[in-house]
Specification:
Layout: E1 4-5, E2 9-11, E3 24-28, H1 29-35, E4 46-51, E5 56-57, E6 67-70, E7 74-78, E8 95-102, E9 125-129, H2 130-136, E10 147-152, E11 163-165, E12 168-172, E13 182-187, H3 190-195
Antiparallel strand pairs: 1-2, 2-8, 3-7, 4-5, 4-8, 6-7, 9-12, 10-13, 11-12
Length: 196
Amino acid sequence: IPSNKTFFYIVTPWFDQGNPSKIGDSETLSSIMLTYPLQVCAQPIAIEVATTSGIPVLPDAHVFLFCRYDPTQGFTCVNPPWIGLWWWKWWCQDYKVRFTCPRSFCQPKCVTRWYDSDDPDTNRGNFEFLSTILNKYPGEICRNPIAIEAQTVSGDPVNKKMVLTAYGFSCTNVKPGFCADYKVRFTCPDEWCSSE
């Protein structure tokens, strides 16, 4: 549940998904959406980053650290390849992120039914893409959802290794039978429901 409201926008709570390693630290939107369903919108308009100790991280200040700072993807800090194994802790720290979402995300009323448009193993996994569902069920879903949920058809939560974005959900088989059968549903802006 968002922790801070403004007139037009809401700010989510802080999220700390990843832990720093020799590679770096990553706080991706897709991973946060899977772990905290409906606590962050699918298409944030802004992102804030800070160390877990509370020091703000500005986009321009960390360019030299090979960082990606993107509200639609999240934040990733990658340790430079020339850093030796002894020095990795001195570069990327442990980060947390929070996102700014449209105010309509705070109290979603316009939620679609669940859709299961693909079966596992028919194409190397299970893919519930917004574009496919829009074509299969015209007029039932908005083209720019503000949130998306995914779960197995039996109601179990998804694995953290899956990918959930504004464009849908994907599970790619790493071995036969890896992906279950999933379903998704979308939250649309209230204006879309009232116009329908």
